[in-house]
Amino acid sequence: MLGSPKTLVDALSLLPRDETRGFRFIGADTKERFYSYDAIEKEAHRRAAHFAALGLKKGDRLAIVVPEGHEFVLSFVGACVAGVIPVPIFPRASFKGLDGYVDTVAHICKGSGAQYLLTMEATKPFVEKVLERDSGITKLLYTESIFEGPTPAFTPPKVDPEDICFLQFTSGSTSRPKGVVVTHANLVANSQAFLGPAGLGMVEEDMAVSWLPLFHDMGLIGFILGPLICNVCSVLLPTSTFARGPRIWLETLHKFHGTVTYAPNFAYALATKRVRDRDLAELDLSHVRIAGCGAEPIQAQTMRDFVARLAPVGFKETMLLPSYGMAEGTLAITFHPRGTPLVTDIVDHDAMKKGEASPVPRGTPKSLELVACGVPFPGHEVLVVDEDGKALPERRVGQIVTRGPSVTQSYYNNPEATAEGWKNGWLQTGDLGYYANGALYICGRIKDLIIINGANYYPQDIEWALGEMDGVRRGNVIAFSVQAEGTEQLVIAAEANSGDVERLKKQIPERVYELTGLSTGYVAIVGVGGLPKTSSGKVQRRKTKQLYEDNLLAEHGTGRVGDGGDEG
Amino acid sequence: MKRSELITVFQRMASEIAEKDFSHVSEESVIADLGIDSLGMLELVGSMERELKIQIPDEQLVGIQSVRQLLDLVEKRTTQTT
Fold first, then answer.
1. What is the predicted ipTM?
2. A94 to B65: CB separation less than 8 angstroms, yes or no
3. How far is A521 from chain B (nearest CA, A)?
4. Does the global pTM surpass 0.95?
5. For residue A290, what are the domain limits?
């Protein structure tokens, strides 16, 4: 392990100069580029000097929409060396409507106050449209040209632990995006926690392998920033390379003798389905120490199926490491103890609705199996609390709250969202959970976030866009997700006239796809006034979901009558 | 490769990925209507790339919604590389 860096910038200078240690980036074209830590630090300083020469000063924000992994990472750390605050934004608009993408980028830029946006020639055609929006961006910079020429004279500013390292935007589609403020102190504390002895227990021989997006916490902190702080080597694949052929994840682990990897639940399910018998003959995964799972609810069956499918190539259940975390916690909040078998809890579904996690025997009808997500890191507290913020005993369901050196303190320039998100120094995660035998279980959400394929979608964003459609009344459409066939499915419920049912059942999924890239599991069209509302006329999302699950939504053509309008 | 062959490749690959029978799918179909989300779509593109020995960069996939649009793109890449 390294001395003890206090900031990401310290870490760069403390890393060993050994030419064999660093990051290997595999390009979309399969070309490999290796950057030793030494090369990364030198390139970061060179890029920092160019940023400074462009007029970027300590504390300025820089939006980064860069599709190539190595260009993204070198620019990101370069900005940090210059004291500039990177604002990573996802670089792909594939399949989704271009307009929606440009709106999101513009909202994030505006929310961050960035004036410059760094991108690449390949992404220019869609990113440049941001200049036509109210984004605050005055100039686009291209990685291909701005770092050319001799390195300008440059004195790096002093970067302190309490300085902002970067902004992690968790929502961008609404006009009030939320950017989590991650300080250097947060980043260093979280990295040392999850990579250290109480977490993954990383050693010099470890090799981390990831295809996770680099613009988002699990990929960015888990496989880039954390490894720089704790001297870990990584092999990085583009997310789209994984999506185009999921087997490459396992092949890369094999080829580079990967010891640590991470992915959301859906990826384990996908890999299990896509591995062919003949692949098994060519794979050896016995060197894997940790296959972490996070970012979305973990299904015990998915984990067991993966183990069963890959056991012939040396994969073991004890390699799986269920985890819980979120951007507001910098990244990791709790980890299952590494190297130990999965622990699950089987509870009664009806008791759960009343807030009690009552254990029942396996196979009991209407039972749920939940996967234990472990315990908090040393120096951090995680509690399950009731509505008054009072800690609940074991097996009582409440909101998960946390505090500690890893936990961030605010959303950038957004006092309203900050006041909701943090109370008396505790981060309000919005997730529901309980403790049993000392381990944390996650069992739902207070906030109505939709999580599909490891990505978060805010129902408000989808509802707002669908409210614009012909025949749908603004404020009378609801988006939520339900569990079906082991995965999360998106359901849309909207009020409309019976004459529009057929058209909307076809057009709503098209609009949803354009907006999010998601396929819609079901569209329920109910009569005007058919969705449950509060006394102030606001549609109730959770009540609607409950009615849908109980088969009580008054859909056109079902003859059911809605009970809307009376809910206080 | 003829257009009629391309649609057959599409039908076969889509059926494999979504584990549904897509032999009826026509060029007019909207991909979202087939229950294939953007992740499934990328996998489908990857399968077609490997089958047809072509490469389609992410940027060119922006805004692709119908089977026809996708096949137009695939056809363009096939003629470019052969």
1. 0.93
2. no
3. 8
4. no
5. 257-447
